[in-house]
Design goal:
Strand content: 15-25%
Distance between the termini: 42 Å
CATH class of the largest domain: Alpha Beta
Shape: globular
Largest sheet: 5 strands, antiparallel
CATH architecture of the largest domain: 2-Layer Sandwich
Number of helices: 18
Strand order of the largest sheet: 2-1-5-4-3
Number of domains: 3
Structural class: alpha+beta
CATH superfamily of the largest domain: Transcription factor LuxR-like, autoinducer-binding domain
Length: 377
């Protein structure tokens, strides 16, 4: 599985899926085999509403994929602790919740166990204040619990999966469907440019054309993409040139290029190569060698979960109980959903009341609502 040629081929296919969405299922299958898993899913998940949009799956039958989105995403005990993990961090179920507790949840008993699934190794590919793009690989009872070798193999491909979904617009978390497919380029707010090795513009979305028309950040000169920030121009063009030689040439250098507009506003250009995989192996000539994803540089706002956990010094289990109270309901419902006893839920509630200065469950709901951003769609 660790054959460099196999890894290189898999990474190439990951980038091929950027321009051909029909390849995603095959790519997930190859990635699952490489990691040592039997099923895989790429999904958009909202940590506040606990809703999910399953974008692509491998090895998971349609009824289970649909039931996860419709019902079991709300019962998935890994949602909140997974959301608190850093983007790109690889973890398994046992890193998020006690495994004995996981086995007692409705999620495991009604969704995972009937499929023969016992553990998942997973990572966040992107995250906003309320939601995240999630990649998971499931192992069955024959493979058993994920070990460190499984995590190590996943760490090799996560950076490439992350960049691939960024270019596929999964970064636009508001609508995972629109974010995935190439025909929705004009539906995203950030500027997106496909360029050749010399910086020539092959295609731009509506936001990209608007940036060019405004001319304060970028302009088209002789058909080439030219930044207003002269200090960034050399680095940008060197990255385009390297992208022609594939991802190996770009590596992790030059992927993010800072830009400054004429009015002093700061932006970031993410340059992602499009010349890996089958296109390079076949020696085919493609005009576009890179996708340039341009957006305003903004400080990442902490999520409500992260703020609440840090401010009130809540443990991961206390945080899960808190959000279960908000999303699921009273003590009996939370106990059933989490697979723990009502007395255990009550114990955590008493601690939550003490730490937050609340007296009632309704006060906890108001507390969470106060931290939620009402402007997020």
């Amino acid at each position: 599985m660790a054959d460099p040629r196999h890894i290189s081929s898999l990474i190439g296919d990951i980038y091929d899926a950027v321009l051909n969405k029909s390849l995603w299922i095959e790519v997930l299958g190859r990635a699952a085999h490489f990691v040592g898993a039997q099923a895989a899913a790429l999904a958009w998940r909202n940590a506040v509403s606990r809703s999910a949009d399953v974008v692509h799956t491998f090895g998971i039958e349609t009824p289970y994929s649909e039931s996860y989105a419709e019902q079991y995403a709300r019962l998935d005990p890994t949602t909140t602790p997974m959301f608190l993990r850093d983007v790109g961090e690889v973890v398994s179920t046992t890193d998020l919740v006690p495994y004995s507790e996981f086995l007692e949840t409705r999620f495991y008993k009604e969704w995972a166990r009937p499929q023969g699934l016992v553990d998942q190794v997973q990572a966040n590919l992107d995250k906003s204040a309320t939601s995240f793009v999630h990649l998971s690989f499931w192992r069955n009872s024959n493979s058993g619990i994920a070990d460190e070798a499984t995590r190590d193999r996943m760490r090799l491909i996560v950076p490439h999966m992350r960049r691939a979904v960024l270019v596929s617009h999964l970064v636009d978390d508001r609508t995972a469907e629109a974010a995935t497919y190439g025909d929705a380029l004009d539906g995203i707010g950030a500027g997106l440019f496909f360029v050749d090795a010399g910086g020539g513009i092959v295609h731009a979305n509506a936001s990209g054309h608007a940036m060019l028309a405004q001319g304060t950040l970028l302009r088209a000169s002789g058909g080439k993409l030219v930044p207003h920030d002269a200090s960034a121009e050399r680095g940008l063009y060197e990255t385009f040139s390297m992208a022609e030689r594939g991802d190996e040439a770009v590596g992790t250098r030059g992927v993010a290029v800072p830009l400054v507009a004429r009015d002093g506003e700061h932006y970031v250009a993410h340059v992602l190569p499009l010349t890996a995989g089958a296109r390079r192996r076949a020696g085919a000539a493609y005009a576009a060698v890179a996708a340039v994803f341009v957006h305003k540089a903004e400080l990442d706002m902490p999520s409500p979960q992260e703020v609440i956990a840090k401010f009130y010094k809540l443990t991961p289990t206390e945080l899960r109980v808190l959000f279960a109270i908000v999303q699921v309901g009273g003590v009996p419902e939370v106990a059933e959903a989490m697979g723990i006893s009502e007395s255990t839920v009550k114990t955590h509630l008493r601690r939550l009341f003490a730490k937050t200065g609340s007296d009632r469950q309704a006060d906890l709901v108001k507390l969470v609502a106060a931290y939620a951003n009402p402007l997020v769609a």
